[in-house]
Amino acid sequence: MLRHAIFALFLSAAVSFTGPAHADDWGLCKNESASADSAIDACTRIIKSGKTKGNDLAIAYYNRAISFRQKKDNDSALADYNESLRINPKYAKSFNNRGNVFKDKGDLDRAISDYNEAIRLDPKFALAYANRGDAWDDKNDSGRAIADLDQAIKLDPKYSRAYNVRGVVWKKKGDLDRALADFTDAIRNDPKSAIAYANRGDVWDDKGDQERAIADLSEAIRISPDYARAYNIRGVIYRNRNDFDRAIADYSQAVRADPKFTLAFINRGNAYKDRGDQDRAIADYGEAIRVNPKSDVAYMRRSESWLKKGDNIAALRDADQAVNLDPKDPANYAARAAVMRALNRNDDAIADLRKGLSLNPNATRKRQLEAALRELGANP
């Protein structure tokens, strides 16, 4: 859950005026509070004027790239960072920000290469260390990730984001106490960090303290009322408490804030399914599939709802699709085995259950698969 909530940040360079004729455009070009379109127009006028040269021109491209990235136009941002670095190959901030674009594009090796160069040019660049640590985490190299985040914090002990990202790494490693400490430090250094509150709430939930979890998630939502992930996590806690009305309300807020939030649609479908409303559950799973046609979980869950409605053929169709999309998930075989049993195809059910067991399921899933096999008179 965590990962859809962690973003690489970027800084705008301090820009000196190149002359009175450019005073207004320079102020707008570097102003991240201005609309991205206005800033892009101002930077473009500076670039096209032909009067700006050298490092000032590199800065103009750099600032315009920031605005393009704010618009999620990574291709234009990349082109501008390239031009900025062509003009000034020693501009550490452009290397750092170009690394962020490569990370957005999923090219982690290029991202890390750019962060390396930013750090070589500016060994005290805490932001570049944090960004490289984030990229190492994406590559599942927790050792390098923590080393970089430690260095970022050493360089800037009040750097909230570095604590937050390091907390994410500790959580993935299962060290909930260290994760909790880092998220608390992130909040101490930035009391308005909604993501740090949401992450700490997630850890409190993992530690079994639902009250503290709800308190932190509610604070994240207070700070950022459209924070879809915080609503989704809080919805999960309410569902685990069998408070389906509150869970559904939170999932509804999540998909309102982010209409492409596949997991929130699935989770709301789960709550409807638990409450016995299979039609609404099926509708939500269908919406999840529309948003993400490769979601095996949505197909698997919809198969369960079809089965509860007594439509075994539709259930089998969805269960087959779930297995096809992810043939390494034991849950998909367990779901299809249930359909096979409903169709009196017990041999096929046994085959699916044994296949699920062969995929090293977790302890809970293993017990479920073994129990189902015994019910069919087969040995695990």
Walk me through this protein's architecture:
By secondary structure, the protein is an all-alpha fold. The chain folds into 3 domains: 1-122, Serine Threonine Protein Phosphatase 5, Tetratricopeptide repeat (Alpha Horseshoe), CATH 1.25.40.10; 123-225, Tetratricopeptide repeat domain (Serine Threonine Protein Phosphatase 5, Tetratricopeptide repeat); 294-380, Serine Threonine Protein Phosphatase 5, Tetratricopeptide repeat (Alpha Horseshoe), CATH 1.25.40. The chain is built from 21 helices and no strands. It has helices spanning 23-29, 36-49, 54-70, 74-87, 92-104, 108-121, 126-138, 142-155, 160-172, 176-189, 194-206, 210-223, 228-240, 244-257, 262-274, 278-291, 296-309, 312-325, 330-342, 346-358, 363-375. Helix 2 (36-49) packs antiparallel against helix 3 (54-70), helix 3 packs antiparallel against helix 4 and helix 10 (176-189) runs antiparallel to helix 11 (194-206). The model is unreliable at 1-21 (pLDDT under 50).
Topology:
Layout: H1 23-29, H2 36-49, H3 54-70, H4 74-87, H5 92-104, H6 108-121, H7 126-138, H8 142-155, H9 160-172, H10 176-189, H11 194-206, H12 210-223, H13 228-240, H14 244-257, H15 262-274, H16 278-291, H17 296-309, H18 312-325, H19 330-342, H20 346-358, H21 363-375
Helix pairs in contact: 1-2, 2-3, 3-4, 4-5, 5-6, 5-7, 6-7, 7-8, 7-9, 8-9, 9-10, 9-11, 10-11, 11-12, 11-13, 12-13, 13-14, 13-15, 14-15, 15-16, 15-17, 16-17, 17-18, 17-19, 18-19, 19-20, 20-21
